[in-house]
């Protein structure tokens, strides 16, 4: 996260985290009575939240994943409303479910917050969660509320999905496969950069993508049915995530830079050539899907980015862009500068 | 949580949270490489953590629940080792799964920590998680790591379970049913009180129960098969949790104080009569199971505490102990003094 002074763009809506009625003025039941009615049920919910646990209809195989966002690390209050934050943390978890080839069925949600956080922000956040769940026909299966020390606000989501096909792993790419993407590259990172620079008005679509990613959820199971050999959610950027596919599959993944031209074109005017290319290659949080298919097997809506080949003698499993390695490191949670 | 000066009991083991090698000196992959091998797989794990999501074998119905613990609120570093904390947060989640009548199959685990937290504490914590999971034949399905501001350490667990019978809800108690418990009452609260008073040596079993609860997981599904009409995990104390059963089922739950004598007896010498009774009636974190059965239907190991009757005209659905209401309020996450 940036240390530049935040600038509030005109389109920021919703209460700030510490505005309004402090949570400490409500007891837990009163807070739940406000929040729970906002959450959707879904077609698979059999016992709703409120008992020891919820019950959800499942197939013989269930997919499960979890992801957490922290105020000041994963979002800044100046740039993202509660609704944005709620939408995003759900969307990024559902993208991981879809990237296995599964259909999302439910989420569990934990809010750990300073008691000075405003009820209004919490309700705004719940509306974002609800909208992202409703869009995906996913139920809120439960959650937890806990208080935390001054300034701390974090949201943790676990998402479940129903797997009706074999799971598509990142380790399944084979020499000869085509590498393809479903969705745009670099928009979310460009949006973050513009927010950091106080120039959100230069590319509203990019800023919107940063705030509320829209992963192509239905395309995950569809790709699985179409025979995708590997697949993952692009959360950490093409360079890092395609490198993961290469290493997990023990192959070399070759991206053709020309295939990235539409993505770079989309960002060039707002960012300039160098930053646009950096966002497309290394920018995270797009939550597009990256997959490999046998040649000729691309489902509708997918775009070819390159191909997969065997490692040569002594060559590492890795990503190459027009034959060259990508050196930008990506980012990390615990090390400084990460 | 108490504000008394903490006293370190002699049996505290394991590194303190902020001792040793700070997390900031490792990158995320290096940290995962240390932690993940500690976690058990289980019979139901089909795709382990490391891809976008894990895959777990499920029945047509899956139970899901989540619970979070925060340093300084839910545990004190002076009293609980990382292994204690890891064991406890898993056990309390699995207890919720069992209380639905389900068999726990997997957990997802999130650690949000100040980068100054020591690797040694994290590994100690992972060993506690692993042991609690292994004891229950439960897999670690995944997790997330995130950094947080100074002093913040929290662990969030989501637990999943396989439901092979109809779920047992807290709303199913019927007039004429017998109220029963599987497990002891008040031990965990007594352990907390003794830790607060610096007298942990007065009742090591109670202190051990506070640090590492051992919910009777197999008795949840067994009670469901035996026809339990309602069931819940005793996490917030008999008074509060039995009151929940009464309200959810719209009945009056009558506890006979004489039935609590074995629990009070167990604590009287260490705590005195009044505190012992308070712990048994209102102390949380025992993670025993509370259930109702038709008369004559108690499975082995369950102990009768009282009975269920219909509300009289104008009477509220509530808990009565020897005919009298219990006024102690229990505790709450966001309100002061909670």
TrEMBL record, chains A, B:
Q: Which residues form the PurM-like C-terminal domain?
A: 174-266
Residues noted as binding substrate in the record, renumbered to the chain? 74, 285, 331
Domain (PurM-like N-terminal): give its ranges.
50-162
Per UniProt, which keywords does this protein have?
ATP-binding, Kinase, Magnesium, Metal-binding, Nucleotide-binding, Thiamine biosynthesis, Transferase
Pathway in which this enzyme or protein is active = Cofactor biosynthesis; thiamine diphosphate biosynthesis; thiamine diphosphate from thiamine phosphate: step 1/1
Reaction(s) this enzyme catalyzes, per UniProt: thiamine phosphate + ATP = thiamine diphosphate + ADP
Q: Which NCBIfam families match?
A: thiL
Protein name in UniProt: Thiamine-monophosphate kinase
Name the species this protein comes from.
Terracoccus luteus
> Which gene carries the instructions for this protein?
thiL
């Amino acid at each position: 996260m940036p240390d530049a002074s935040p600038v509030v763009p005109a389109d920021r809506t919703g209460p700030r985290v510490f505005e309004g009625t402090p949570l400490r003025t409500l007891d837990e039941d009163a807070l739940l009575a406000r929040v729970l009615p906002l959450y959707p049920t879904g077609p698979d919910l059999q016992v709703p939240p409120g008992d020891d646990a919820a019950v959800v209809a499942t197939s013989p195989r269930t997919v499960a994943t979890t992801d957490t966002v922290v105020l000041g690390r994963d979002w800044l209050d100046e740039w993202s409303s509660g609704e944005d934050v709620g939408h995003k943390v759900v969307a990024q978890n559902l993208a991981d479910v879809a990237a296995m080839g599964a259909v999302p069925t439910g989420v569990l949600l934990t809010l750990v917050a300073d008691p000075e956080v405003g009820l209004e922000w919490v309700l705004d956040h719940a509306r974002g969660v609800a909208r992202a769940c409703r869009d995906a026909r996913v139920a809120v299966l439960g959650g937890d509320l806990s208080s935390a020390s001054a300034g701390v606000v974090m949201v943790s989501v676990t998402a479940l999905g129903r797997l009706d096909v074999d799971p598509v792993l990142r380790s399944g790419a084979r020499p000869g496969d085509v590498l393809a993407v479903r969705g745009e590259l670099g928009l979310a990172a460009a949006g973050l950069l513009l927010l950091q620079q106080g120039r959100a008005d230069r590319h509203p679509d990019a800023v919107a993508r940063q705030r509320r990613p829209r992963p192509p959820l239905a395309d995950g199971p569809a790709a699985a049915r179409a025979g995708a050999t590997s697949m993952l959610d692009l959360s950490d950027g093409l360079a890092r995530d395609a490198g993961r596919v290469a290493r997990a599959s023990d192959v070399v993944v070759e991206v053709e830079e020309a295939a990235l031209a539409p993505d770079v074109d989309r960002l060039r005017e707002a960012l300039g050539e160098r930053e646009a290319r950096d966002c497309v290659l290394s920018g995270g949080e797009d939550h597009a899907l990256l997959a490999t298919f046998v040649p000729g097997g691309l489902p509708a809506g997918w775009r070819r980015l390159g191909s997969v080949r065997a490692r040569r003698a002594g060559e590492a499993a890795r990503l190459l862009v027009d034959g060259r390695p990508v050196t930008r490191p990506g980012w990390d949670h615990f090390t400084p500068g990460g």
